Amino acid sequence: MSQSSEIAVRGNDPADALDNTTPALSGAAREALAAGTADSTRRAYSSDWSEFTEWCAANGRRPLPALPETVIEYVTALTTTPRPRTGRPYSPSSIERAVAAIRTAHTAADVVPPSTKGARIIVRGYRDRLARAKDPAAKTRKAQPALPSTLRPMLDTLDLETLIGRRDAALLLLGYASAARVSELVALDLADVLETEHGIEASVYRAKIKEFTDTAIPYGTNLPTCPVRAVRALREALAGEGRTDGPLFVRIDRHGRIAPPMFRHGVPIGDPAGRLTAQAAAQVVERAAEAAGLEGQWSGHSLRRGFATAARKAGHDLVRIGRHGGWADGSRALLGYLEDSDRWEDTPVSGL
User: Rounded to two decimals, what is the model's pTM?
Assistant: First the structure.
């Protein structure tokens, strides 16, 4: 079997590309490369690459190195093939991510990526076709911002007499006040969130910029929505259960047990210390929004986006907003949030 044929059979993950084409790289080096990519991005790219290699195997194409024509044919197929989960073809943004995953896999394998100019032309035409047909898939889906006016009814759905209720309240309020991604939020330990005379000093590791930020969170003026008091209530409840160190946000079952054992096919899963996963933290936001009867798309990112929107409306400086939330200076994502916020407050039509 030739090397290219072997790749076509085995290439189900970008990491396989390293195994097949650069045997000189040690396992430690491969792990170091992977550590430079955000977990969520790595998982998404891995899934996209797996789907691409499966399509190549089914259509007699070589995934690595892939020809530009192969990428064009694949992208064309994605515009018409229903996804199993939704029953609809891929959205333009999902296809763009798949193209990026293909290029990333080639780069990781030290192989020149194929030209994707033709594929991107197809995506532009696909987006235009959807837009003219008034198809919602033409628009990038955005999470609803969790503003104070929506956080309050979300908090009202929680039973603060229970450990789960206190955990979820602290997660919502600290996530909002720190503008943390849910992956950054669940990475916090009790020792990372120190209460001072002014409020909370949270040491948050910002995964995108690969830096810690010492995030200052003052006491809230309203008791029900004060993040400092919510975290204190959670800390006291955990201490009552004998938990004075370890993760701040832990999984709790309906009986109030902390870090109950979990199994899949008889094999233990989950963090032994009970640390909540980012997906579980996002579900806390989604459940609270649904219970409050809020419309729109809600996710863990609603907290981060809500902070940026509310801070902008309150007149805070762009740079201070960005650095508080761990956005890189000049972040296009942050600018997009602020543009949404400024549509009415700073519209050029005003006064005309």
Answer: 0.70
